[in-house]
């Protein structure tokens, strides 16, 4: 058994969608979360920059004596996963393959939509992962760069969010997809808006759900589950403190989120 916490990082508050699933499914596991709020967004950055930022995030999490890392960022998972797993000698799980697997399981007509940041879409990580599982599935993807700042501003349930979503989703909707992968961990905070636009016949995939299932399997297979009788804890750290992270995070997780600011450049 291993009672050390699970480390989770993202470019901002979007990774809290993964934290929420971890808290629900692995209630004995403590979590250390880092949101790189000073350098958001990752989705418009180069692969080299995303890899460098991600390595700093992992080094910070390692300073908290974590037992594994969840890359709760589709951009980092898409562009930097192989580099990071080669660099760091601890279990690392990304969100791309779990999300792709969920989409393959969900589709009935073999037509899957994927929305994500520019970097995630440019990497073609989701189409590649989906077609490795089932090469017959057609994938239609769309870069949606404005969704991250909309979520970070707290505008998810606003007319602005709906108008932007209608514009971005129109092309994919026209392709008669029956499954839509929310290929950025910020996007599930817009799930109600997406559902209203795409309609009830389209299954929305939150990769966080399958990611946490993979975390459980890894912990169980490697005898790393927390067997402590002490209550699990969740700690939050950011690279730039701001009202939005704590306010939106508290509302989303249904508990008070108090984040400590750290200088990520020290790592």
How are the SSEs ordered, and which strands pair?
Blueprint: E1 6-10, H1 16-25, E2 31-35, H2 47-62, E3 68-71, H3 74-87, E4 92-93, H4 96-106, E5 111-116, H5 118-123, H6 125-133, E6 138-143, H7 147-152, H8 159-173, E7 179-183, H9 191-198, E8 203-205, H10 207-221, E9 234-238, H11 243-253, E10 259-261
Parallel strand pairs: 1-2, 1-3, 2-9, 3-4, 5-6, 5-7, 7-8, 9-10
Helix pairs in contact: 1-10, 2-3, 4-6, 4-10, 8-9
Overview of the molecule:
- With 267 residues, the chain is α/β, with parallel strands linked by helices.
- The protein folds into 2 domains: 6-94 and 209-266, 3-Layer(aba) Sandwich (Rossmann fold); 96-206, 3-Layer(aba) Sandwich (Rossmann fold).
- Helices cover 45% and strands 16% of the residues.
- The chain has 11 helices and 10 strands.
- The strands form 2 sheets. Strands 4-3-1-2-9-10 form a 6-stranded parallel beta sheet, with helices on both faces. Strands 6-5-7-8 form a 4-stranded parallel beta sheet, with helices on both faces.
- Helix 3 links the parallel strand 3 (68-71) and strand 4.
- Helix 4 crosses helix 10 and helix 8 packs across helix 9 (191-198).
- The two termini are 29 Å apart.
């Amino acid at each position: 058994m291993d009672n050390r916490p699970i480390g989770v990082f993202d470019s901002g508050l979007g990774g809290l969608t993964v934290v929420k699933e971890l808290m629900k499914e692995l209630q004995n596991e403590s979590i250390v979360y880092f949101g790189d709020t000073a350098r958001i967004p990752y989705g418009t950055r180069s692969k080299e920059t995303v890899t460098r930022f991600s390595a700093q995030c992992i080094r910070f999490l390692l300073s908290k004596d974590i037992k594994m890392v969840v890359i709760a960022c589709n951009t980092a998972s898409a562009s930097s996963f192989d580099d990071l797993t080669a660099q760091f000698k601890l279990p690392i799980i990304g969100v791309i393959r779990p999300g792709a697997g969920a989409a393959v399981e969900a589709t009935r007509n073999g037509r899957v939509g994927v929305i994500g940041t520019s970097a995630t879409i440019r990497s073609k990580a989701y189409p590649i992962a989906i077609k490795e599982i089932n090469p017959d599935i057609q994938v239609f993807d769309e870069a949606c760069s404005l969704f991250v700042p909309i979520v970070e501003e707290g505008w998810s349930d606003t007319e602005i969010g709906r108008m932007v979503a209608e514009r971005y989703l129109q092309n994919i909707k026209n392709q008669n997809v029956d499954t839509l992968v929310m290929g950025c961990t910020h996007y599930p905070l817009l799930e109600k808006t997406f559902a209203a636009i795409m309609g009830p016949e389209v299954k929305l995939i939150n990769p966080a759900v399958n990611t946490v299932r993979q975390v459980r399997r890894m912990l169980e297979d490697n005898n790393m589950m927390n067997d402590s009788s002490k209550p699990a804890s969740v700690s939050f750290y950011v690279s730039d403190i701001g009202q939005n992270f704590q306010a939106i995070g508290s509302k989303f997780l249904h508990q008070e989120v108090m984040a400590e600011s750290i200088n990520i450049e020290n790592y």
